[in-house]
Amino acid sequence: MKVLVVDDSRNDRKVIRYNFEWHGCHVVEAANGKQGLEVAAAEVPDLIISDCLMPVMDGFRFLHELKKFKELNAIPFIFYSAIYTGSREAELAAALGATAFLEKPMRPDELWDEVGRLLAAELASEREAQAPPMHEEEFLRDYSQVVATRLEEKVRELTEENESLLRLNGELERRVVERTSQLESANRDLEMFSYSVSHDLRAPLRHLEGFSQALTEEYAAKLNTIGNDYLERIRRSSRRMADMLDAILELSRSVRGKLAREDVDLSALAREVAGQLARSQPERKVDLRVAEGMAARGDARLLKVVLEHLVGNAWKFTQPQEHAVVEIFPTEWEGHSAFAVRDNGVGFDMAYAEKLFSPFQRMHGQDEFPGRGIGLAIVKRIVSRHGGKVKIEAEVGRGATVTFTV
């Protein structure tokens, strides 16, 4: 048996095809009623299974046009639809001469059994004469009623969905207001914490430093070497704690405040930062290379902080090199414009790279390369605020490259 399947859903056609071919049928396909007419005229199938709602020409018009051809109007025609499933549609299908009107979805075995039952019933009726084609005026009248009814139902569905969306939008707006209030409260708490760090926690540190200094000045002669060493350790620890508090405050400031986006000349900022470093250590001979034309849109103040930390790190970790090179240049990362700071310094083992973006994580000892271990954490937060990303690549003894987008 040759079966024509007409459906705009490729997946639905495929399911029916595999089902009927498994039972030994030859299946041909069409994606709409217009194509179905062409295939039917060329193939003259023994059965047509058609969807109702399709582009170009739907199932009802397809059947109406099919009945105009003498050699095709006797072909059993079964509607198989998930959209047009009401009584009006079934009545129109019967008036057009359809064998049956089946509702999607059906299991493949159910569809096969139902089609077989319908064809057997049709053969048993032994109809000698087919009903004449429906007049065009009658078809248009009934077809228009079906379409109008379906449109009314669709309008009702869309209206209900729109009302539901409006309610959901109102709920989302309320949640946004609540969330904004929570964030503002969290920011106020953060500011209070920063104030506490900068004032309340510094007081005991000043006392610790002051009294240890007094002990050193007034009682150093009465203490042995071990006692003086203990005092010096206390003073170093208090200074280290003060530096860490400064770092926490700096990290806090990097994620507070509103971004003032503008066009930023990164080349000019990089030259400014490089000049400051060169003036701070005039005895060092570092080959500083800043590419021209680097520009980005962001907060100029924060982007300068990013360059200060990245170029500062490159300057610091190239110190052991006889011929130190620090480069700032544009590049590309995952199809986006990016910027990089590269040096030929000491580098590090990439197995620990991700740790460097956390506060107070360092690869080198304080005695080897002084620092607070906060620079890359600040860089990551500023870059993230700009909607960008940052990564670092390095090799022991061959330097490092930090790449970022904004």
UniProtKB/TrEMBL annotation:
Pfam families: HATPase_c, HisKA, Response_reg. Residues 2-119 form the Response regulatory domain. Residues 148-175 form a coiled coil. The lineage of its organism: Bacteria, Pseudomonadati, Thermodesulfobacteriota, Desulfuromonadia, Geobacterales. Transmembrane segments: none annotated. The keyword Membrane does not apply. Keywords: Coiled coil, Kinase, Phosphoprotein, Transferase. It comes from Geomonas paludis. The keyword Coiled coil applies. GO terms for biological process: osmosensory signaling via phosphorelay pathway. GO terms for molecular function: phosphorelay response regulator activity; phosphorelay sensor kinase activity; protein kinase activator activity. InterPro entries: BphY/WalK/GraS-like, CheY-like_superfamily, HATPase_C_sf, HATPase_dom, His_kinase_dom, HisK_dim/P_dom, HisK_dim/P_sf, Sig_transdc_His_kin-like_C. It catalyses: ATP + protein L-histidine = ADP + protein N-phospho-L-histidine. This is histidine kinase. SUPFAM superfamilies: ATPase domain of HSP90 chaperone/DNA topoisomerase II/histidine kinase, CheY-like, Homodimeric domain of signal transducing histidine kinase. Gene3D superfamilies: 1.10.287.130, 3.40.50.2300, Histidine kinase-like ATPase, C-terminal domain. The modification 4-aspartylphosphate is found at D51.
